[in-house]
Amino acid sequence: MADTSNSVYVRCGKPVNELVMRLGVLQYEEINITISNADKSKKIPQTNPFLVQDFIKKSINRHQQIDNMRYTRQGKIQFTTKDPICAVQLLSLTKFMEIDVSTDLIWENISAPFLVADIPTTTPLEELSKEIQDKNDCLVVEMRRFVKPNSGKVTSPVLITILGTTVPETIKLWFIRQRIQPFADRPRQCNKCSCVYARSTHMR
């Protein structure tokens, strides 16, 4: 995962595989991996399940930990597992039955988003992320600010996504214990300030 940041967005620079392995000591529901054709104009063809199983058994030595496999409407294959090592092995695939592929991790069910209000808009997100991780037992994977679409002004709430699905009741920032607000992971518009936000469940 490349380190990405700007004034309204910051993302953890740690490799995806490292973050997945850290799930071993955290609470989470399940890990979902998608496999796509490296040629974005093409889909992964649906093939005899026996042949797919044979390929996976030869490629993934933790294949017993795969809970489910399905073809998506977008022409991808999605694997579900609760085992971080199996997930990392799936993420490392570069070929799938002679097809060049790319893999992606779905962050839903392994991460938790929440809102923290009253964060000064002048506070750099990189500084905020470091403060949260230094003062709290969590790993920040993504942070976003809200922006008013008409004026482009940044507002004070910050959307924070941490690794694992356990959401704390409060977090400590600059000696201040702040209560967090739940966040519904779907596109929405704030009626009071006309801020628009939608979070993707995929991060590359």
UniProtKB/TrEMBL annotation:
Protein name: Pre-C2HC domain-containing protein
Highest taxon of the lineage: Eukaryota
Species of the source: Araneus ventricosus
Organism taxonomic ancestry: Eukaryota, Metazoa, Ecdysozoa, Arthropoda, Chelicerata
